Amino acid sequence: MEPRDGVPAVIATEEQLARVIAAFADGTGPVAVDAERASGYRYGQRAYLIQLRRRGAGTALIDPIECPDLSELDSVLAGTEMVLHAANQDLPCLAEVGLVPRKLFDTELAGRLLGHPRVGLGSMVENVLGFLLEKGHSAADWSTRPLPEDWLRYAALDVELLVELRDALYVELTESGKLEWALEEFASILATPPKPPRADPWRRTSGIHRVRNRRGLAVVREVWETRDKIARERDLSPGRVLQDAAIIELALNSPKTPAELQALSTLRGRGARRHQSAWLRAVTKARGLPDRGLPDSNLPGDGPPPAHRWAERDPEAAKRLAAAKAVVAALADEHTMPTENLVQPDSVRRLSWSPPADITPESIGTSLAELGARPWQIGLVSKPLAKSFVRLECKGEI
Questions:
Q1: How many angstroms separate the CA atoms of 266 and 255, rounded?
Q2: What is the homologous superfamily of the domain 201-293 according to CATH?
Q3: CA 60 from centre of chain
Q4: Taking a C-beta distance cutoff of 8 angstroms, is the pair 181, 163 a contact?
Q5: Where is this region: Disordered (predicted)?
Q6: Burial class (CB in 10 A: 0-12, 13-18, 19+), 348
Q7: What is the bridge-based pairing of β-strands 47-55 and 103-106?
Q8: Sheet holding 47-55, edge to edge
Q9: Which CATH architecture has domain 307-394?
Q10: 137-174 burial, b if ≥16 CB within 10 A, otherwise e?
Q11: CATH class entry, domain 10-191
């Protein structure tokens, strides 16, 4: 309920930050790190509070808006293991302020590899360490200033026991023979470059499957891009400017006048109506596009088709996929972990759709490595997968 050293003051000046850097440089052991964002309120995924804790240094709560450059802190911690929970969520916003781990321990990923049924931070602290961790402000608007005392208490508690959790999980990983697997996973997270911007991000609009023609898709695109521009300019989460449901309703109804737009049920909120002229312009623009300017119904993919079409398009591939899924499920159960942590489902699909010409454990392993599988994963699955594919060939089923 309360950090052992009390709730620290927020670091918001260069002088205060210099003292934190000195203290953490003199500390010992891993550094617990967490970040709070305001993704449901503000545009983008920037951090609005960064929490750190290290033995001998205590806990620091840093305001990255007032102290946007943590590269000096990063330098003094360059050789130090950083402990994060669900690291992929926080690494991008930490990198924006110059904090980039060289050594990582991800307590959530460790929990998955160990087969913990619940891997949220609160659940793992309770199940592994026996403490009930006070939670309740994860969805708060962390861009609020000043931050309330109870929010700061919550933020400090998020790193209070993170190193202790790491130490306990390290023992579990060692005793279960999974430590090297975990270390490979942590190294892979750090070595994987950031994903490039998604092509046509408007296609991720919730409910877009209801829009069944290219003209309607053009409306989705134009309204989505208009919303994104307004959200960026106002530093607001796009959903607070206009909900996805409203974009879809605009695409399905294509209003021509302000009255028609205002009659739509999802356009009656104050936020949506504030920019109604912009939405109407976007719809009008989409309606006036020539056919050649309309978006394709689907983007060409670089992978296999959806699995539900395989039985018709390539029955042999469908049989390989069923066999591969059975193999992966059995191995995941044997090693007590989710199937997606044993091997990525996309890798299984791609391998089943386009297996190597000569199916051997080595060729399967090479294909998996090209798809991003780690050595420990390849060591576990390549031989059983090769056997299952060869067995299908020998039975004459493919």
A1: 13
A2: HRDC domain (1.10.150.80)
A3: 25
A4: no
A5: 289-313
A6: buried
A7: unpaired
A8: 10-11, 58-62, 47-55, 28-37, 81-84, 103-106
A9: Orthogonal Bundle (1.10)
A10: beebbbbeeebeeebbbbbbbbbbbbbebbebbbebbe
A11: alpha beta
CATH 3.30.420.10 in the chain is located at 10-191
Sign, Cα dihedral of 242, 243, 244, 249: negative
Distance separating the N- and C-terminal Cα atoms of the chain: 60
pTM listed for this prediction: 0.92
The C-alpha angle with vertex 236 and arms to 234 and 240, in degrees rounded to 5, equals 120
Q: Whole-angstrom Cα distance, residue 186 to residue 173? A: 13
The rounded distance, in Å, linking the Cα atoms of 209 and 392 is 36
Positions of CATH 1.10.150.80 in the chain: 201-293, 307-394
Alpha carbons 28 and 19: distance in angstroms, whole number = 16
Q: 322-361 pLDDT, tens per residue?
A: 999 999 999 999 999 999 999 999 999 999 999 999 999 9
The residue count for the chain:
398
Give 262-319 pLDDT, tens digit per residue.
999 999 888 888 999 999 999 999 999 999 999 998 877 778 998 999 999 999 999 9
